[in-house]
Amino acid sequence: MPDSIPDRTRPAEPVAPASGAPAFGAPVFGAPAVSRRAWQALIVLLAGMFMALLDTTIVNVALPSIRTSIDASEATLSWIISGYALAFGLALIPAGRIGDRIGHKWVFFTGLALFTLASLACGLAQSDVQLIVARVVQGLAGGIFVPAVTAVIQLMFPPQARGKAFAIMGSVIGVSTALGPIVGGLIIEAFGTDIGWRLVFGVNLPIGVLALVATVFLLPSGAEARAHAGVTAVTAATRATGSPAGAAVGRAGVDVVGLLLLSGGLVALLVPLIEGEDRGWPLWTFLTLGGGVLLIVAFFAWEVSYARRGLSPLVPPHLFSHPAFTGGVVLALVYFAAFTSIFFTISILWQAGLGHTALESGLVSIPFAIGTIVAASQSDRLTRLLGRNVLVIGVTLVTIGLIWIWLVLLLVEPVTLTNWHLLPPLLIAGLGSGCFIAPNVQFIVATVDRTEAGAASGVVGVMQRVGSAVGIAVIGSVFFGTLNVTGPSAANLATAFTHSATMAMAVSAGFSVLALVLVFALPKRLASAGPGH
């Protein structure tokens, strides 16, 4: 395993922008400097990122309200979270590839517009089926525009400034996911149960409309971004396909078979995990799991064959030729399985088990949010100073925090459990998450060529979303599968839900321990490469 990897996002040699192409951000020649417009464009990109990731956790505190308002089943609650995450993940790779070919600006705009409309549909849903469908569309839309965020950052910012941009992105990721329960709790507290959960989705509407208008004026077009990156259109096409421009490009299309195999495999794995416990684990659930594994194997075999024919596969197999990239995407899956499920468990315990309000449930996550903000703001500096150790420290802190929460749930009397018991471990876990998220993305994406940043971002994002979906499905199955309420009293409810939360948190902690082992698959340091890499 190498101690360091070159930053392959830098072009082989500087190329002057095409005649008439507007200067965007840093000049290609000389010392790099980042323009005001580049930072403004970053704000637009991160507004979209904020919306997409806020919706991964803001719904958690609304689940009890949704359950009573539209009479949703336990499986439906898991689908509301996992369906969003899975659809999100399935769209990431094709969206990244399309953005690499035609430019990321209008892919970002299209996905953001659909996401905003789907958010409105979620708020207007009258049944659990309507809500699940709207959430799936919302997740699909998020998966369309999110790959453009990382890809455009790679193109807009030179290596010397890219770390800062990724650190800001990491802060947004951490803050949006951590603040979701707080924002959701405030809305439900202010507007009541029946209207409040609908307005939780309405948060996206004003942000989405403003971001769409800003996208038109601030984001660079495909040609403009390539010119800024110092890559001509011909060079970009050659690098993206691995063959002379016009050869594979003309034959390359959407890898429909690959997309169907991947989608079918992931759905086949997720459906039994969500529905199995609710239906008593009949034979079809195990057969479906086995079928899902076979479809995933068939997907990877197809991608290799597709690439050998000179076509552009959904997931370029050569991305996995570097051990750091392969290890990193597996790490992303396992880490997000642990990370996302924390808020699902705590929200259900706090409201359905301990009888607290949605706002009180959301306030529990404040220590995590604070820790994430503090650590993420320093993640770039810590990465330069510590290299991979910042990731090791981050996952270690998350693991300590989750084990601590598990011990609190195990040892503290349920009726006496308060948010003060969880404050220290959630703060520690938040610090760890802030240390991990942005540097991890930077380590993984920097292992591939700059022109394939969209594809690499898509792969990493898929693993994150699949991890979230699998984590929620597994945790939901453990939580509700071990739930046995013996009586209607508050004490019985508290005891039963705390027991289930303890079991669920043990699984989350187990995911985190595995992530701690996998983090050592990444290289020790990111080394800037000279020309030619």
Textual characterization of the structure:
The model is unreliable at 1-31, 229-252 and 528-533 (pLDDT under 50). It is built from 21 helices and two strands. It is globular, with a radius of gyration of 23 Å. It starts with a strand and ends in a 6-residue tail after the last strand. Helix 1 packs antiparallel against helix 8, helix 4 (105-124) packs antiparallel against helix 8 and helix 17 crosses helix 19. The chain folds into two domains: 4-12 and 34-230 and 312-526, Growth Hormone, Chain: A, CATH 1.20.1250.20; 253-311. A two-stranded parallel sheet has the order 1-2. With 533 residues, it is mainly α.
Describe the structure in brief.
The chain has helices at residues 36-57, 63-70, 74-102, 105-124, 128-156, 159-191, 193-202, 204-218, 222-229, 233-241, 248-251, 256-279, 283-308, 323-353, 358-363, 366-377, 379-386, 389-411, 419-445, 453-481, 490-518, and strands at 4-6, 525-527. By secondary structure, the protein is mainly α.
